[in-house]
Design brief:
heterodimer; A: 160 residues; mainly alpha; 2 domains; disordered C terminus; B: 211 residues; Rna Polymerase Sigma Factor, Chain: A; 9 helices; disordered N terminus
Chain lengths: 160, 211
């Protein structure tokens, strides 16, 4: 604790609990000081000499960690949602045939979207090539800079 | 005021430095996560003494302390993926050890099997120095004996602060309390210890405090 967090007022309040007079408090404080000196001389006992060996034996023979409740719940949720979505897709419309049509529709829509985006970009490039290039350059540069700044933190894990 | 002149020399805020220390275990943790048992053994070697020491002071019997300390490291190994690299590894392991000790003490209380006087054997000294004489050893023994009669809360806060030289911030992390309360806890624990020592000096009765 830094000394500014622990001030004389706190100490005085505690000393008042144990002694009524200034002399009494001074005496208690002195005894505490002596006690602290003695306490600081104490050391942790040494563990048994084969302690590390015993730990490593237990580590080697211990079964793999059982998944936590959170992990089990997450897995169950993912499986349920996936299976549910798959079932919904197959049952909606007219079974497997309907699912195939849906996929084909999706592919065509996606293709049309990509073609439209490409022609849009082409038009933009022909009318304002320089601003577009500068804009792209800046956005890529900013993204790379941000990634570089985040890179050292990648090794740190958030505590679970 | 004379009281505070005397107190100023107290080591209140002794471990005031809260600077971030380099964490030498980061590499070992990374390798242990990948299954390198030598790296984990190195981590055990580096932290076994404070972990065993805390267990010993909290549980008061060597056999139980050894068992719980081993269990602590096993749990640490099994949950290494949950360890936050930004936090000191020793504090994380000490927190696990403390929780396991408290679990055992709770079970003990429930079963009412706790030996009232289990601390007959005094804790062995750390690194005895040559100049340490018989009187000093006797004093330390008396101190250890008096400390062993305190409650588990008092024992652990004294052990972490004075024996392991942890900062109040670190102790707050281990005990999951605000650092600001640690100094008050330390004062009260010291005061109880002072009274125990006084009682022991006088040939009088001395009731033991239960966990």
């Amino acid at each position: 604790m830094s000394t500014d967090e622990w001030n004389d007022a706190d100490l005085e309040a505690l000393l008042r609990e144990v002694a009524d007079t200034d002399e009494g408090r001074a005496e208690v404080a002195e005894e505490h000081r002596q006690l602290e000196k003695d306490l600081l001389r104490l050391a942790d006992p040494l563990p048994p000499s084969d302690f590390v060996h015993q730990v490593m034996t237990r580590v080697a023979t211990a079964p793999a960690r059982a998944p936590s409740r959170t992990e089990v719940l997450t897995a169950a949720t993912i499986v349920t949602v996936t299976v549910g979505a798959a079932l919904a897709l197959f049952t909606a419309g007219s079974g497997v045939g309907g699912f195939g049509t849906l996929l084909a529709d999706l592919a065509i829509t996606l293709r049309n979207g990509l073609v439209a985006m490409g022609s849009g970009l082409g038009a933009l490039w022909t009318t304002a090539a320089l601003p577009l290039a500068v804009g792209l350059f800046v956005s890529v540069g900013v993204s790379l800079g941000a990634l570089r700044r985040l890179a050292p933190l990648a090794g740190l894990k958030v505590q679970s | 005021m004379p009281t505070f002149e005397a107190l100023n020399s107290l080591s209140l805020g002794l471990m005031a430095s809260e600077s971030i220390t380099p964490q030498p275990w980061v590499d070992e943790v990374r390798r242990a996560r990948k299954g390198d048992s030598n790296a984990f053994a190195a981590l055990v070697r580096a932290t076994q003494r404070p972990v065993f020491g805390l267990c010993r002071r909290m549980l008061r019997t060597e056999a139980e302390a050894s068992e719980v300390a081993q269990e602590t490291f096993l749990r640490a190994y099994q949950h290494l993926d949950r360890y936050d690299d930004a936090r000191p590894f020793d504090l994380w392991v000490l927190t696990i050890a403390r929780n396991l000790c408290l679990d055992l003490l709770r079970r003990r209380t429930r079963l009412q099997t706790e030996d009232v006087e289990p601390h007959a054997q005094t804790l062995p000294s750390g690194e005895p120095t040559v100049e340490e004489g018989a009187i000093m050893r006797q004093e330390r023994r008396s101190l250890e004996d008096a400390m062993a009669t305190l409650s588990v809360d008092d024992r652990e806060v004294l052990a972490l602060y004075y024996v392991q030289k942890r900062t109040t911030k670190e102790i707050g992390q281990i005990m999951n309390v605000a650092p600001g309360t640690i100094m008050a806890r330390l004062f009260r624990a010291r005061e109880k210890l002072r009274n125990k020592m006084k009682a022991a000096e006088q040939p009088a009765d001395g009731g033991q405090e239960h966990d």
